[in-house]
Design brief:
- It is a single chain.
- With 298 residues, the protein is an alpha/beta fold.
- It has a domain of 172 residues: Aminopeptidase.
- The protein has 8 helices and 7 strands; from the N terminus they run αααβββαβαββαααβ.
- Strand 3, helix 4 and strand 4 form a beta-alpha-beta unit.
- Bound molecules: 2-acetamido-2-deoxy-beta-D-glucopyranose (2 copies) and zinc ion.
Amino acid sequence: MQSMEFVKENKPAQLPLSIWWVAAGLAANAALLAGVALLDAALPEPLGPGAPPERFHGLTAHQHLTNLTAIGPRVAGSYENEVLAVGVLVAAVKDIAAHASPHNQLELDVHTASGAFALSFMDGMNNVYRDVQNVVVRVRGVGGRATGRSALLLNCHFDTVPDSPGASDDGAGCAVLLGVLRALAAARRPLRHDAVFLFNGAEENILQASHAFITQHKWARDVRAFINIEACGAGGREVLFQAGPHDPWIVEMYASVVPHPYASSLAQELFESGLIPADTDFRIFRDFGNLSGEYRQP
Ligand SMILES: *[C@@H]1O[C@H](CO)[C@@H](O)[C@H](O)[C@H]1NC(C)=O
Ligand SMILES: *[C@@H]1O[C@H](CO)[C@@H](O)[C@H](O)[C@H]1NC(C)=O
Ligand SMILES: [Zn+2]
């Protein structure tokens, strides 16, 4: 009884104070969260043509994306994909080659191929393709040592599903790769290792052009590892979605050189469990090229 009275007596004196403390604490917390959210969403100012040529020019990459999406949906086999999109990419690569530094050389190959393969995807299927196109570009350092198997493959696909201009999937990936290609080609010293850029023209139905490249292209044997730039939904920050299966140095390299590394192992588990009916060129390079690499979503 006595202790109850004691509590009762003290309550009125304590209550207002603690409410204010709680309110202040919540406000501080909210301000901190807002600050972190702002920092998290903050992006560097995109550079334009006036910036040093060996930097990534975000404004030019955006123009590549505008040019590609202006075509509209680009279904593999359509005039839009096989003629217009290939034309936009080839023109962009030729312009990049014209602005390369004397230290690096570009070689362009528009590759057409036919083939067939079994895919253990969903219930399993046979996948037959004819005359799919790849726009392939190799950058080499001038006077560099003869390369064994040491090239890095960078992949995106420019074809789309029938009802979308594919800005996110995967136009943005191709725009980013064109920007990276421009910057590497303009580098003021020779590249130590070759980079092979694969703009593949048939991913959506299903993974055919990457198969054509990795099983048939003359440069496929030179590839040591790959980075696949794909989309999974639109928006959000770049995430490393899948890596491996061998060569853990790839992830160590990612963690040590990427300015804002951000990765999740969730997607890898989902893909491998077969729970989601989707897959990417990652599988093709891994299963048909015996290669390790990364799948990043820009
Ligand atoms: C976009 O297309 C226009 C018109 O063909 C061309 O002049 C321009 O150079 C293209 N932009 C890029 C970044 O390739
Ligand atoms: C695939 O690559 C791994 C790691 O590089 C290697 O150990 C293995 O022997 C390769 N398998 C084949 C069939 O080439
Ligand atoms: Zn895609």
